Amino acid sequence: MNVQTDGQTDSHDIQVTNSGQNGTNADVTITSEPSGVSVSGADTYLAPGTTTDVPLDITAGFDAESGTVSGNVNGEPFEFYLTVNTPPLAGFEDEPLDLGDVLVGQTASGEVTVEEVSGGGSLNGVEITEVSGDQDADLDFSGGASVSGSSGTVDWTVTPDSDAPQHEDLEWTVELSDSRYPDATREVDVEARAIYPGYFGELELGDDEFTFDEPRDGGDTLTRTIDLEIPNDGDTPIEVGSVSASSPNAGVSVTASSTPNEIDGQSTEDASLRVTADRDLPEGSYDISATVDTPGFDGDDASLDGSFDIVHETRLVADNADIGDVAIGEANGRTVTVSEELGYNDVNDVDTTLTDGPEEWLTLQSAPSSVSAGGSADATFSLEFDTSAELGESYEWVYNVDGDSDDATIEVTASPVPLDLEPIRNDLSGYDTAVADSTLELVDRMDERLRSGASANQEISTVLTFGEAVTLYSEAVAEADGHLENGENAQAQSAIIRAAAAYNTMGLQADRIENEELRGLANTAQSDAEGDLDRLIQEQQAYYEDRLESGEMSLIEEATTQRQLARIALLQGDEERANQLESDAEEAFSSYSDSVSAGEQAVQEAESTWSRMEDEQFVVVLGQPLLLNPANYDAFVAGTASIDATYQEAIDAFESAGETTRAEEVRAEHESRTTALGIARYSLFGAIGVYALVAVGLTLRTARRMFWYVRDTRESVSGDFLV
């Protein structure tokens, strides 16, 4: 049987025979039917002993398929094949049809493909009729008459109302049919979404807090960037023309430092507002205004009248303390500084507590209860390991310094060791030499062995002694180099001898080290030291040999030079030459002693002559010897000549011996004696003049007395005295 997929009901009869004696109604049951086909039986009376046509109502939808119809009438089965004849059906390529976004205020249009969807027909023009519409938009199709064959295109237009809500789903139902089969229709849903052109939404500050987190005394102002969030609540891009910002508050200035050029639909971009505030401003809320607009006179704009808060941050910081190696049983301590760095707020109710680490050994001696804004205070720790501490372990204590507005952490670290190697490390680190570097490596390696328990007491003491010798050696070499750079070879000699002694000690201790690795490091250090010492010795030897060859030295200088050369020869290991030089030095010292002795003897002789003249020839008046007796003049002249000769002899002897200081003393004494002798000489001349005056006076007095005597005698004889 054939049926048409036009939605109409067709009829098909089946013959049913009632061979019974009684009449009955036909009970039709359909057990199987093709897809899209509906089959039902009519109410039919079956007379007894007759064959009756029982009609079946068959309805085929537009999507019906051909196939077998099966069933039974009052239990008697039947079956027949149904052929479905389908007219061409029209439909959209994509269903439901989504036209996408349509912009309010504009008409949207496009093209859509219509195709034959039943699979067996051909279209010849298409009718598209709106079954139900949307109250906020109009939908129109055109160009359906040109659709033919299996597919074609039609044009569509959507015109949303100006007051259509943004993002509203616009919905229509349309009916499609081939122009030849108006009853063979299909309904299809069509949808779209109403969108708006770009417009500014509500402006917001990305962060409404301005934190003063830099030191108060670090400048006059603080500058921060606050983001101005500019939303585009529309669905198409919007162009940004300008952004301006300001604040009415004193001490605050606001400018726009950067702005976006365009903002996509349903997106937000940030403009950067540069806010500068005086560092002395108190905490609180401060006003800020901002305006955003698009280019042109009829564009969109938005504004913000908001505020931001200035917040004074408090920053409590504390130093850490790395105490390092601490010998068991030795007390050690450390003071750390707790500071408030910013200077805006005091930190009160400060409580310092141990939060991590062992409860033994480290003690918090004192801690601040408050820290003033921008100020500092000290926390003091004392440490003493006992034998329960594990050698070489690095212990860490963590203290929480908790204040009312901020907190900080103090970390104290230390390691227990059998002995403290830091002093010798510090001494060696003061010298930038290969010798010191090798010895530091030796000490560090011994320290590692010590911590692992591999170093015995003998090894420890030997390495430490070696290190002390290197320190003495380095100190002596540095001192010697300093003297030599200044041309002070004599002063450098003792430093070189100390360096040699320290070098020898290094060798002795290196030989005592049993561990091969440690002994190798010690030998490397000693080898480096040998080169420096040889350089100093050779330079010093050249200096003293040049002095000897010059021949311009005193006896003591020659003796000293010979002895220094002997010491240098000993340092070089040349004992034979050292003995010869020492013998030469002894001879030079003997000559020196003889010369000094002769000088002292001459001085004694001069002083004896002077004492004898004082006793026999001089009269001392107010400490000054005077020669008053002309009878002593010859003895005076002889004594003066003797004194001059013996003093000069003494001066020459001392200068020859190199005793320049003693020679100067004798010269000064000679000059003093010479001055006194000159005064004595002049005193003799004065005494002779006095004697002459006295003699003249006596002569005159005697002559006068004689005159009176003669006159008186004559008068007494002549009797004139009676007149």
Automatic annotation (TrEMBL):
Region annotation (Disordered) ranges: 1-44, 242-270
Biased composition (Polar residues): 1-38, 243-270
Keywords: Membrane, Transmembrane, Transmembrane helix
Transmembrane domains' residue ranges: 682-700
Protein name (record): Uncharacterized protein
